Write a sequence for this structure.
């Protein structure tokens, strides 16, 4: 894929979702870190419902470790994998207090060493909380990148990230991350993508396949052409 094609994709998605942003509710780097940790295998909508009360009860790392693990588990039980996430939150908070004065570190290398914080979470935190350009590859970004030909079907998440970093100007990494998520979440969905109304159909592998005319048999046994969607 050449730069002109990439520019066309970025501009088109930008026109579709000019207000794309992080949809996880937070007011500081610490809350964002907790929210992203909770969001693994869970929708942002569910996370925001849980953190609405969670962030009122727990305002600092100290607050999370002062309660029994069982209590924290109950507070986040609507979140998938809540038991494991509760353990990671308390472990993370202890490390923040012991090593970083209770503050979330701004360095990517330090973030990925925290319990429950992987590369994607670290990318979200550094880009949204500390304005460091980064592309976090979640399921939406991965799916859209592969469908639009910016990455290969067999590419790992890390390979997708590296390819996007080469194709997209660095000062647009964070914005592109948000726009790709919105495009995948609200338009190019996993099961029912809106191919019939997509302005990027001509460059989409999946879309071309879905919209390709196929031969079906009508009730009288005659061959007729229909279009899938």
């Amino acid at each position: 894929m050449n730069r002109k094609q990439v520019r066309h994709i970025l501009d088109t998605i930008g026109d579709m979702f000019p207000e794309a942003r992080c949809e996880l509710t937070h007011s500081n780097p610490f809350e964002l870190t907790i929210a992203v940790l909770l969001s693994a295998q869970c929708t942002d909508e569910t996370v925001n419902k849980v953190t609405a009360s969670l962030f009122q009860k727990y305002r600092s790392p100290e607050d999370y470790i002062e309660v029994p693990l069982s209590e924290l588990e109950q507070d986040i039980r609507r979140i998938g994998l809540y038991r494991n996430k509760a353990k990671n939150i308390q472990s993370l908070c202890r490390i923040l207090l012991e090593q970083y004065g209770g503050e979330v570190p701004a360095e990517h290398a330090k973030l990925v060493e925290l319990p429950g914080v992987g590369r994607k979470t670290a990318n979200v935190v550094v880009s949204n909380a500390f304005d460091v350009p980064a592309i976090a590859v979640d399921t939406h970004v991965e799916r859209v990148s592969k469908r639009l030909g910016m990455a290969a079907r067999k590419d790992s998440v890390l390979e997708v990230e590296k390819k996007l970093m080469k194709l997209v100007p660095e000062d647009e990494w964070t914005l592109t991350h948000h726009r790709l998520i919105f495009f995948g979440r609200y338009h190019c969905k996993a099961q029912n993508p809106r191919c019939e109304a997509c302005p990027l159909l001509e460059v989409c592998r999946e879309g071309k396949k879905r919209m390709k005319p196929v031969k079906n048999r009508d009730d009288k046994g005659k061959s007729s052409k229909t279009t899938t969607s």
Summary: The radius of gyration is 21 Å. Residues 210 and 229 are 5 Å apart (CA to CA). The first strand starts at residue 213 and ends at 217. Confidence is low (pLDDT under 50) at residues 214-229.
